[in-house]
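Fold these two proteins, one after the other.
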Amino acid sequence: MSLRTWLLTPSVPLHELTHAAFALPWADVEVALAGENARVEFDWSETTPTWAVRLAHLAPTLVGLGLLLVLVALFGIPTASTLAHLAIHELGLVVILALNWAVFTYPSAADRQPFD
């Protein structure tokens, strides 16, 4: 297992599971989380509204941005002076968490496909 895979392991399956959770009311969902190519496949019904398809595709982005807003409301925006008080292992944890948040939140090309 590569270092990249080890550091970003939690965010990729959570990203895909968020798609699945939001799509479940309108689609048959097939989830594959094994290996590095985690993915979710949707079988949308004919009557699925367009907004539901778009919501399911953008679900991780919306959840990630909402989580960021909650964290900023609770703890404020980190500054250089607040980060300077962290020990090196604490700063490393912050970096790993930030990378996982970015991977979880960023919409892939497949996530943006319903908007093309």
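Now the second one:
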Amino acid sequence: MLKKYRKYVKVSKRFPFIHFSKKNRASLVVVEDLWTKCQTEAEKILYLQLRENMYYPTPHYWIEHIRANLALVPYRLALIEHRPGMNEKRIIRQLKKRQWRVIFYESDQLLNNHNKYVNLILQQAPTKNVSTSS
């Protein structure tokens, strides 16, 4: 019987000695066209470029108390616009605890060269191969 639960239990040398891993459920996102919720021009460009590549970003998605400008929820990838005075290390650390990855972007650089950020996002969120039978 212990073998059945072994993959959910982790024993460590520090307190608490026994950790139970949570079984994460798959996230379900309703696909809608939400580009009207994008507030800045950089968000709109990034949203439309991701939609062209068959990704469905969610604008202004809250992860605990951190707001991501755009989020690819099934991939757990948050896109946050860099602002002055922002503590990037703290945001990365908090989202990493929740198993999210973060990409910070500069709106000026995004307006000049949006392909750079789109390619970076495509590397972080790979597409699934779906084969069709004919």
